[in-house]
Amino acid sequence: MSFICKYLTKNFYLTRWDEELHRFQHLFLPEKPIKTPTFYLAGNHDIGFGEHVIPEAFYRFRKVFGVFSYMTNLGNHSIIALDTITLSGSNNTLKKDAKELIQRLGKGEIYLLNNSIVFFFFEITLLTNLFF
């Protein structure tokens, strides 16, 4: 299992995105497919932060690396990744996935494995008033 965070830094503007992405892929993505699950989480230097999230950077990053908020179970581990970067802002469109994950966990629609070890990944410290 691989967790790769905060590698594409200070590059959420269009300048050099392709060059940085190529460098990232060269360093971290194997030439041959592997069975090891790899998870990604956007950082504030990747897409901006809060009111300063750049929608173009958000969608570009998500297109390459997938959604930012998700939960999965691997073995006896439950893994939750939450996009706290957009939760810190007021753009409801960008933070929709993160809010839905929180609501589904709160309603019991998504279950953690019994007796599992829970890993919770996020970029920015959680504050209760960010969610609602």
Fold blueprint:
Blueprint lengths: L1 E4 L11 H12 L9 E4 L2 H4 L7 H11 L4 E5 L2 E6 L1 H4 L8 H12 L9 E6 L10
Parallel strand pairs: 1-2, 4-5
Antiparallel strand pairs: 3-4
Task: Label this structure with key terms.
alpha/beta, 132 residues, 5 strands, two-stranded parallel sheet, three-stranded mixed β-sheet
Please explain how this structure is put together:
With 132 residues, the protein is an alpha/beta fold. It has one domain. Helix content is 33%, strand content 19%. The strands form 2 sheets. A 3-stranded mixed beta sheet has the order 3-4-5. A two-stranded parallel sheet has the order 1-2. The longest helix has 12 residues, at 17-28. The N and C termini lie far apart (32 Å). The model has no long low-confidence stretch (mean pLDDT 78).
Quick description:
It is built from 5 helices and 5 strands.
Strand order in space, largest sheet? 3-4-5
pLDDT averaged residue by residue: 78
Along the chain, the helix and strand elements come as EHEHHEEHHE
**Radius of gyration computed on alpha carbons:** 15 Å
